Amino acid sequence: MSTSNADVTTEHASRYLQQLCKHWAHKFPVTFDPNHGEIELTIGKTVMDAGATALRIALTASDATQLEQLERVVEDHIKRFAFREELVFNWAAA
Q1: CB-based contacts of 66-71 (< 8 A; 24+ apart in sequence)
Q2: What is the model's pTM?
């Protein structure tokens, strides 16, 4: 298994967590509340935790290729939700 994490600085972490979970709930198994969310995509698992100043994202995929794809997909979707601010995703291998 391949894993990576990113801490994304934002005061809207809970909003983005909930938006992403609601967005994918019709396609994938999703559980979430305002502070924690989990999404089981076909290419891997996304776990998010919202804090007051950051959104912590942990990704798990079966291999490095799928992990890179999952990083791009999650990042692209959250950036679309956060069009009013410039978010930085520094993915780090776990």
Answers
A1: 66/2, 67/2, 67/3, 67/4, 69/43, 70/41, 70/43, 70/44, 70/46, 71/4, 71/6
A2: 0.95
Contact by Cβ (8 Å): 88, 10: no
Phi and psi angles of residue 56, each rounded to the nearest 5 degrees, phi first? -95, 125
pLDDT tens string 21-54: 999 999 999 999 999 999 999 999 999 999 999 9
Task: For residue range 79-94, list pLDDT tens digits in order.
Answer: 999 989 999 999 999 8
Q: What would you report as the CA-atom Rg of the chain, rounded to the nearest whole angstrom?
A: 12
